[in-house]
Amino acid sequence: MSENRTVELDDDALVQLRGVRKRFGSLEVLKGIDMDVRAGEVTCLLGPSGSGKSTLLRCINHLERIDGGRITVDGELVGYRERHDVLQEMHPRDIARQRQKIGMVFQKFNLFQHKTAIENIMEAPVGVAHRPKEEARAEAFEFLEQVGLREWANHYPAQLSGGQQQRIAIARALAMHPKIMLFDEPTSSLDPELVGDVLGVMRELADAGTTMVVVTHEVGFARSAADTVVFMDDGVVVESGEPTTVFDNPQNARTRGFLQSVL
């Protein structure tokens, strides 16, 4: 299957991907992706390693440049300006402004090791959004409360478990009040006993109506929290739909094979 399957698209979706392509040298990693993410919904991307899931996520906030197609978030073309049907990459300052509305949580936490938990959360609101320091601090405590770590505010990352660091990373992303949260396999670097706390925070965000795109191998989370499950393989969307449809009645043989291997 070399072409992206036909999917139902929504011109009013918060995030819209149309014909998105991405190459690394001679390797085409994304082969014309069409996908929508509606406001207030959770989309989980599933698929084998190397299928293009994480690359797709990184394209949404322009951590990776695309080689074809269009991505819009909240009605704005991401990373580029279009002039006479030609895309021209934005100035880094404008790209940084766009990223303020796209929160990102990585596999490896990416916390500043020389800053405390609360300082990590305050960094972008103060340094990028220029919010008053005391206002940012007060709000940072609220986000720490939300992820269950208020009492750890003055601890450094080295003093925290992996699960605690990932919850701080989630709080840090939320502090910029993004329109959408992107999660790139947020539990893959955690010991099994720490996974539940992070998924619990993510479930609470989903229940609160946070728009989320989650690359994950946690099938249980996808089944219970997602509004839409997208199965990718070899750089294309093979199948997408509601969790009960994709998990209980997959239409594509590749989807069935993948689910049999992970369930």
For the secondary structure, the number of strands is 12
Largest sheet: 6 strands, mixed
Report mean pLDDT, rounded to a whole number.
93
Gross geometry? globular
- Rounded to an integer in angstroms, the radius of gyration calculated over CA atoms is 18 Å
Please give the alpha-carbon distance between the first and last residues: 24 Å
Specify the number of helices: 9
- The side-by-side strand order for the widest beta sheet comes to 8-9-10-3-11-12
- The helix content, as a percent range, equals 25-40%
Strand content: 25-35%
Order of helices and strands: EEEHEEEEHEHHHEHEHEEHH
Give the topology, please.
Blueprint lengths: L14 E10 L2 E11 L4 E5 L6 H8 L7 E6 L2 E2 L2 E4 L2 E4 L2 H8 L2 E4 L11 H11 L5 H14 L15 H13 L5 E5 L7 H16 L4 E4 L3 H7 L2 E6 L2 E6 L1 H6 L4 H10 L1
Parallel strand pairs: 3-10, 3-11, 8-9, 9-10
Antiparallel strand pairs: 1-2, 1-4, 4-5, 6-7, 11-12
Entry summary:
The chain has 263 residues and is α/β, with parallel strands linked by helices. Helix content is 35%, strand content 25%. It has a domain at 108-177.
Name its key features.
263 residues; alpha/beta; 6-stranded mixed beta sheet; 4-stranded antiparallel beta sheet; 12 strands; 35% helix
Give a verbal description of the structure.
This protein is an alpha/beta fold and 263 residues long. It has a domain of 70 residues. Helices cover 35% and strands 25% of the residues. The protein has 9 helices and 12 strands. The strands form 3 sheets. A 6-stranded mixed sheet has the order 8-9-10-3-11-12, with helices on both faces. It has a 4-stranded antiparallel sheet with strand order 2-1-4-5, covered by helices on one side. A two-stranded antiparallel sheet has the order 6-7. Helix 3 crosses helix 4, helix 3 runs parallel beside helix 5 and helix 5 packs parallel to helix 6. The protein is globular and about 50 Å long.
